[in-house]
Amino acid sequence: MSTTxxxxxxxxxxxxxxxxxxxxxxxxxxxxxxxPTAVAPGVRLRDPGLSxxxxxxxxxxxxxxxxxxxxxxxxxxxxEYVAPDGLLTSHEVLAWDRQPRDVLAAEAPGLPCATxxxxxxxxxxxxxxxxxxxxxxxxxxxxGTGLSSTLVLDGVPVPGHRGExxxxxxxxxxxxxxxxxxxxxESYCSxxxxxxxxTALGGPATPGAxxxxxxxxxxxxxxxxxxxxxxxxxxTVLAMAVRLLDPPxxxxxxxxxxxxxxxxxxxxHAYHRRTAARPGPPPLLTAALGxxxxxxxxxxxxxxxxxxxxxxxx
Length: 314
Hints:
By secondary structure, the protein is an alpha/beta fold. The protein folds into 2 domains: 7-118 and 293-303, Nucleotidyltransferase, domain 5, CATH 3.30.420; 131-288, ATPase, nucleotide binding domain (Nucleotidyltransferase, domain 5).
């Protein structure tokens, strides 16, 4: 007999890795593993046919059996636009040709299965078990390979009418930070964008922000300017979002957003400078669950009300 009941098989599918875990009903992560996300031949999209996603679930089910745990549900988050009913509506990152819910259900017939946006999964995890658990609502921002956000009200991420209320990365870079930048905020601040901007300045090709941060620590002034600019841009935009939404708190997550360093220092400075004009600005908090927020939040998806197409909800 298993010692833990109600274990959920959770997946956090990303552009660079697929994280998989067994999550207990109280949010404890009992097992975790991850694999690189495969690239579709000839295109920029990842995980062709969601074969890696399916393999991740099969590995979880096998591991649960080895641990004598009962998997009672499946939850998964994806880096796409996801409608309130859990159906993917974009091909921004993944080379999917069947809805993930159908792919996962085929691997475990009969188990409840819920799918959602990865950033909303991260926010849900932080709302239930992390930095947002003491707040009725908050603005959640995920900064990693990409950049996205979601507003949480009464402990539930707000999807918007089409499920597209996540696109902070599509905002413009404030002219006060970089008047000449023509791209999006994501292409300026995200891990991938930081690497691209550093390379465009004449530096060696770098895959992302971690490498640029190492160069800055070693004294590379161009790398330092790139990180400072990314932090200043995102901090400024978050201060603008506070003026629009007035949330009780802002929670910053994702692998890059939850990490200390030069970018975070510049971000904090810009945010606090631009929110200081009004009393009691929302605190800028670091996600407590770190890179596992979306994985734990994906397990929570199955507890949300089922939403019919065209209705607000998940």
